[in-house]
């Protein structure tokens, strides 16, 4: 599948995304040593014990020294800061890449920091669970999923091919698009649904009277529908802030769709409601 | 579990809910003959072949004649019309019950139609899938789920006990509450999420450009979150219309929650977003 071998991989942020990337590449036999870099000790020790990393350090400079590929997998709003710290210590000719859920803003912040002799390939594996940390990482997370790479005019073709091969080796189908398109698409299929899920749980919790928690009655349907509201608040705060423009646009589109439903309910317009529900059902069924 | 035996059960609307009720009671050995009543022939033939019913007819009068229990499981807005047609033909002392997803409006419409010698027990099994029709029915649908019964001052205690026993025999935990409370609770944990899911699919389909269908990029997360948008449009039109008042109220609460998120994104208020997401996550996690 791949002719590449990475003697040393550095992963900054050994959580679900960074940890699973390391595990997948290890399983594919494509990496030599994996060094994990993080702040907390417990998580890194878990990573070591699980075989996600072969060594760890709290020092970004130490961790990336001599690494052929550096993978950033910390929350979106921290990526540029981390990049600024690691770039001066990276080996000439090495490749920096990331797994952040928002691309345009992150790229804008990182590209000016790059050195001539370092390549940057921005990426986003469209895979995940509501779990986080190294304990949640597993080698097959990316199997059968898409990974979106968003090269810019500055991105080196060979570096792009390398990172593409790694994600393919991890089992993903690689899709290439512009950062702007990525952010627009993800705002719709992922960021908006998360905002909606968080708001829905909030609303249902609030709409009971003083001493009545309506959530207590919720059955499987509600639990399933709101599963993504169990996602990590830090990660989603960062995504909401970093993809603000695209997210506000789809949020407004959603408000209009919901207002249409509300108006039809208000007016008792059964025909319009039926048509609306049927159209959504058909669109939803067409995805599967 | 139950001392009751129902020599003849009539089910009007042999779909997912009516069909599964019949199958569950058959499996529990609590019914003699089950007669299915419906409009379409194909669905009733499926029901007969699957052993959901022992006989079927298109005539409401014929079907309910001699039945000890008549279970109505047609869309919510049709329940009163069906009740008006079956009540004159029901056996003295028999019990009418239903599985409709909205209670107050249905009860208001049915109670004035009742005869002195017929009891009515309004109910709603909180169980279901996005599938419909007799083909989708299965005996264990109600196992481990809740069934809400909403008696009124007119409801006979013995009839209530009978219907309660039947749902318990089907494997459900029976909860008793007022019709109004039922409608308020269900508006929050079920009806609102369905409206939101239909609107979300609509919005995401609309927010791509002319020749860009963003839905094509949707992965497992979006599919899971919007599963309930594949539900039957007729059923949901009827629920939206029949539970209009309670639904509009929670819809507005939801609009406020969403507006709060939107405002915080607009203002780049990361702290407020984090707090909001964390609170929802904690509430969601507390359900499980
Ligand atoms: N989860 C998903 O569904 C998913 C999918 C695709 C992409 N992503 C993206 O992947 C990245 C990581 O997500 P994840 O789900 O793997 O999260 P995670 O499991 O919480 O892992 C993130 C790691 O980053 C480190 N970290 C957290 N805050 C940091 C900070 N301020 N500075 C430096 N390091 C920090 C943490 O380690 P220490 O505490 O030890 O520093 C943590 O182990 C995010 O950019 C996210 O948007 C997530
Ligand atoms: N699905 C759920 O998740 C769920 C959960 C709890 C309660 N409920 C409630 O249970 C009831 C039935 O839902 P379901 O999911 O079982 O639907 P379903 O599978 O579509 O079955 C409904 C049945 O009612 C009959 N019907 C449809 N329109 C009718 C009309 N205008 N007049 C007379 N009969 C009609 C249909 O048979 P014919 O076409 O042969 O007449 C159909 O088989 C609804 O009141 C619903 O709100 C549903």
From TrEMBL, chains A, B:
Q: Which Pfam families match?
A: PDH_C, PDH_N
Query: What EC number is given for this enzyme?
Result: 1.3.1.12
Prephenate/arogenate dehydrogenase domain residues: 7-288
Is Transcription regulation set as a keyword in this record?
no
Instruction: Give a yes or no for keyword Transferase in this entry.
Output: no
Query: What GO biological process term is on the record, naming one?
Result: tyrosine biosynthetic process
Q: In which pathway does it act?
A: Amino-acid biosynthesis; L-tyrosine biosynthesis; (4-hydroxyphenyl)pyruvate from prephenate (NAD(+) route): step 1/1
Where are the membrane-spanning stretches?
Answer: none
Single GO molecular-function term?
A: prephenate dehydrogenase (NAD+) activity
UniProt xrefs under InterPro entries: 6-PGluconate_DH-like_C_sf, NAD(P)-bd_dom_sf, PDH_C, PDH_N, Preph/Arog_dehydrog, Prephen_DH
Superkingdom per UniProt: Bacteria
Recite the UniProt keywords alphabetically.
Amino-acid biosynthesis, Aromatic amino acid biosynthesis, NAD, Oxidoreductase, Tyrosine biosynthesis
The protein's annotated catalytic reaction(s) are: prephenate + NAD(+) = 3-(4-hydroxyphenyl)pyruvate + CO2 + NADH
Q: What family does the database annotate?
A: Belongs to the prephenate/arogenate dehydrogenase family.
Q: What is this protein called?
A: prephenate dehydrogenase
Q: Which species does the entry assign this protein to?
A: Syntrophotalea carbinolica (strain DSM 2380 / NBRC 103641 / GraBd1)
């Amino acid at each position: 599948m791949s002719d590449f071998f990475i003697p040393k991989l550095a992963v900054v942020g050994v959580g679900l995304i960074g940890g699973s990337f390391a595990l997948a590449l290890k399983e594919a036999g494509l990496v030599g040593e994996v060094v994990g870099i993080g702040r907390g000790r417990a998580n890194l020790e878990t990573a070591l014990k699980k075989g996600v990393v072969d060594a760890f350090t709290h020092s970004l400079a130490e961790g990336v020294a001599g690494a052929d590929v550096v993978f950033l997998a910390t929350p979106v709003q921290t990526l540029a800061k981390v990049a600024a710290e690691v770039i001066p210590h990276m080996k000439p000719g090495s490749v920096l890449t990331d797994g952040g859920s928002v691309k345009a803003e992150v790229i804008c912040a990182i590209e000016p920091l790059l050195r001539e002799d370092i390549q940057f390939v921005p990426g986003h594996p469209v895979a995940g669970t509501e779990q986080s940390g190294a304990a949640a990482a597993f080698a097959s997370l990316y199997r059968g999923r898409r990974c979106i790479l968003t090269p810019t005019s500055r991105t080196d073709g060979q570096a792009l091919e390398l990172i593409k091969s790694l994600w393919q080796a991890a089992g993903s189908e690689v899709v290439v698009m512009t950062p702007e398109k990525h952010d627009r698409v993800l705002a719709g299929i992922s960021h908006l649904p998360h905002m909606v899920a968080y708001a829905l749980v909030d609303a249902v919790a609030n709409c009971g009277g003083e001493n009545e928690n309506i959530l207590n009655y919720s059955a499987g349907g509600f639990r399933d529908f709101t599963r993504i509201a169990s996602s990590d608040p830090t990660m989603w705060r960062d995504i909401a802030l970093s993809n603000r423009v695209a997210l506000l646009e789809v949020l407004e589109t959603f408000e209009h769709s919901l207002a249409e439903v509300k108006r039809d309910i208000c007016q008792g317009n059964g025909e319009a409601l039926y048509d609306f529900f049927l159209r959504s059902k058909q669109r939803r069924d067409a995805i599967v």
